Amino acid sequence: MRTFDLTPLYRATVGFDQLADMMDRVLTNDAGQSSYPPYNIEKTSDDGYRISIAVAGFADRDLSVEVKENALHVSARKAEDEAERKYLHRGIATRAFERRFHLADHVRVTGASHTDGMLHIDLVREVPEALKPRRIEIASQNVIEKDVVDAKAVN
Q1: Positive or negative, the Cα torsion across 13, 18, 22, 24?
Q2: Whether 62 contacts 74, CB under 8 Å
Q3: What mean pLDDT is predicted for residues 33-42?
Q4: Is there a contact between 122 and 112 (Cβ–Cβ < 8 Å)?
Q5: Domain residues for 147?
Q6: Band of pLDDT at residue 94, cut at 50, 70 and 90
Q7: Rounded to 5 degrees, what are φ and ψ at 129?
Q8: How many CB atoms sit inside 10 A of residue 119's CB?
Q9: pTM > 0.85
């Protein structure tokens, strides 16, 4: 495993500490991250995203989707009503899981649906008007010189 020293990033930048913290978190958590359940992250539009998680065997009441402090928490716990069943082969995993996704600023969850064994979570990035690019009008030098010329003509 490689380790990266992010100290030069802290020395040379101001305000990017969240980015450095995220990189550090991702690099340290990847080794122990479980691959269950499988999921996809897709871009549905310029500012739209969808997370699809394979949750075969779970009912709506077994699933939980929460947003806390710029993090999306998805978890599932199977109800304990299967004690009377005796399986000859059990290939469908229904073990409990918790999966976390860190959300960027201004990304919010717009909805979730559970169909055909897939949990779909829709997200959208909503940039506030204050942060959107705006065009600044540039004052022309001709306006200033015209006033100077008019003043000379009067005197």
Answers
A1: positive
A2: no
A3: 86
A4: yes
A5: 36-154
A6: confident
A7: -55, -35
A8: 21
A9: no
- 137 and 76 within one domain: yes
Fill in the DSSP letter of residue 127. -
pLDDT at position 23 over 80 = no
One domain, residues 24 and 42 = no
Could you give the dihedral angle defined by the CA atoms of residues 98, 99, 105 and 108, in that order, rounded to the nearest 10 degrees?
Answer: -80
Q: Are residues 11 and 56 in the same domain?
A: no
Question: Quick one: residue 116, left, alpha or beta (phi over 0 = left, psi -120 to 50 = alpha)?
Answer: left
Diameter of the chain measured on Cα atoms: 107
> Omega before 38 cis (within 30°)?
no
Whole-number Å distance between alpha carbons of 27 and 70: 19
Say whether 133 sits in a helix, a strand or coil: coil
